[in-house]
């Protein structure tokens, strides 16, 4: 693969990553970069191994995952912040990438965090009782 194609693909990726809050269209990319839509899609797929639209959707959902894990923002607000006008479309897109709904994802992360915390408290309690015996 030539260097120009790789640079173009990287520039497209950077452009997408800088705009997680909205849907970037192929037309917009063609206006931003001086190439045809077919050329841009081919450069991207050859460089990253996935179609441009798939990559954009995946990155948007990974951003949603971060927001679901690290904030208490309502799911509908996250959907809106990522450019979805409809919560069910967001949930369907999320499920299509991750296999669970945003609500299920957040709940599973909370349960995992609780298990980790509970396990660390058991270890602390256990190590405390062991030190008293020793």
Structural summary, described in words:
There is one protein chain. This protein has 134 residues and is mainly alpha-helical. It has 2 domains: 1-49; 60-134, Arc Repressor Mutant, subunit A, CATH 1.10.10. The chain contains 7 helices and no strands. Helix 1 (3-17) crosses helix 3 (37-48), helix 4 (52-70) crosses helix 6 (87-98) and helix 4 packs across helix 7. It is elongated.
What is this structure's SSE topology?
Layout: H1 3-17, H2 26-32, H3 37-48, H4 52-70, H5 75-81, H6 87-98, H7 102-133
Notable features of this structure?
134 residues, Arc Repressor Mutant, subunit A, mainly alpha, 78% helix
CATH class of the largest domain: Mainly Alpha
What structural class should be given to the helix and strand makeup? mainly alpha
Put simply, the count of helices is 7
- What series of H and E elements makes up the topology? HHHHHHH
CATH superfamily label of the largest domain: Homeodomain-like
Major sheet characteristics: none
Helix content: over 70%
Gross morphology: elongated
How large a portion of the residues is in β-strands, by DSSP E?
Answer: under 5%
CATH architecture group name of the largest domain: Orthogonal Bundle
Distance between the termini: 65 Å
Q: What value does the average pLDDT take?
A: 86
- Given as residue ranges, the uncertain stretches (5+ residues, pLDDT < 50) are 124-134
Which fold name is given in CATH as the topology of the largest domain? Arc Repressor Mutant, subunit A
The overall number of domains is 2
| E-strand count | 0
Radius of gyration: 21 Å
